Amino acid sequence: IAAEAQEASTSSEASRVPDMILGQADAPLTVTEYASFTCPHCANFHATVWDQFKKNYIDTGKVKFIYREVYFDKFGLWGAMVARCGGPEKYFGIADMLYDEQRDWLASNDPAGIADALRKVGLKAGLTKEAVDACLADQDMAKAMVAVYQTNATNDKIEGTPSFIVDGELLSGEMSYEEFAKKIDAKLAK
């Protein structure tokens, strides 16, 4: 009975914390990114690779993209809570802002200052102060997010960020757009 309760708990947490997905469900290739909103290497991927990758692979229907958050620290969790606050339709826009402004919102290195900076990101994204405050205060959601992250990261053997699973193959670390595209093209050619 304990195993059944654990399984039921895990599935209800997963339903509260769905994967964030871009692209067509029937795309020939699925790419899953594991990243943290506080990871400078993830922000670099976002700044140097993301736009071209999205334009050339996701927007063209070649890749279904799944984004999974990694929480190495509470600030990464808080950032993800703000990103999820606007629902799936605002998620990637808020995620863009979190990466583009990562140095700014992390600059204070003080929990109160970071929380205030994250509230400003949420407000800039069109969320109300009340909505952002409620999202940041939702401890049940935070626990569910951490549980889902731990399950996914363990299952996929994620040890660092950014990490990508491309057609079942784990790719870790920073890559240029050209390196990343070459790996994806090789999988699409199969």
The spatial strand order of the largest sheet comes to 1-3-2-4-5
Classify the secondary structure makeup into a structural class: alpha+beta
Secondary structure: helix percent: 55-70%
Distance between the termini: 44 Å
The biggest beta sheet is recorded as: 5 strands, mixed
**Rg estimate, integer Å:** 17 Å
In the predicted model, the low-confidence regions spanning at least 5 consecutive residues are: 1-9
Give the beta-strand count: 5
Q: Mean pLDDT, rounded to whole units?
A: 92
- Our estimate of the beta-strand percent is 5-15%
Q: What's the order of the H and E elements?
A: HEEHEHHHHHHEEH
Description of the molecule:
With 190 residues, this protein is of the alpha+beta class. The chain is built from 9 helices and 5 strands. It has a 5-stranded mixed beta sheet, sandwiched between helices. Helix 3 runs parallel beside helix 6 and helix 6 crosses helix 7. The longest helix has 19 residues. It is globular. It starts with a helix and ends with a helix.
Compact description:
By secondary structure, the chain is an alpha+beta fold. It is 61% helix and 13% strand.
